[in-house]
Design brief:
Layout lengths: L6 E4 L7 H9 L3 E4 L3 E4 L5 H11 L5 E4 L5 H8 L12 E4 L2 H9 L13 H12 L7 E7 L5 H7 L4 E12 L6 H8 L5 E4 L2 H10 L6 E4 L2 H9 L5 E3 L5 H11 L2
Parallel strand pairs: 1-2, 1-8, 4-5, 4-6, 6-7, 8-9, 9-10
Antiparallel strand pairs: 3-7
Amino acid sequence: MSLAGRRIAITRPASSSAALASRLDAAGATVLVAPAIRRGPPSSWELLDAGLSRLAAGGYDGVLFTSPAAVAPFCERLGRIAGLDVLERLTVGAVGPGTAAALAARGIEGAIVPPREDGASLAEAVAAAFGSRLDGARFLQPRAEEGRAELSAGLRARGAAVDVAPAYRTIRAAAEELRPLAVELAAGRCDAVVFASPSAVGAVLDAAALGAAKAVAIGETTARALRSRGVGEVFVAATADDDGIFAAVEQALR
């Protein structure tokens, strides 16, 4: 399907938008990259560094990731006190294919990936993998400072211990930073807007109304955030990667 003449906004951070923008451009679309969030260091590294020290000393049964953004700071800070090979004896969980790919790029293979891309589903998958060993097992969860509690709550309810450690902070763009997107939306010149997190949903919808633009979400968690803000029709990527998003954009603009 050609996207010629279509105008599509991507609200992901610029560093993770280039490949999708290039693909949309090759299909004929005009792309506006309007980052609605950016990543920053957590308010404190104390909890993550304490967790990494415990990890290096053999104090965990697994490490669980609910975002690709947590992978780099985790690996970089772990590398200062131990090699990544300490993970070889542990169970590693990834909330979805994008997170698993970020781990694989660092040489961390074989992560448990759940069928649904959310923390509750990852908790179920880890519980199934551990079976009776889950009771008393201990996990480290590097995540966003403001992350959701679905994973940790799901595992704690099954008898496991989870140490949640902020590895980064999500910073929402101010309304003024999103003014170019708001102008396009108000003028009806934007056909679709791509969202990849609830934080991006909040930032954009606090700054502008979507109007006639179609909403495309990377997954169900982001789709729920859109629906909670009154967006009735949301096109959800079947897989949380550029292939899935591109297909959802095509579906939205048929």
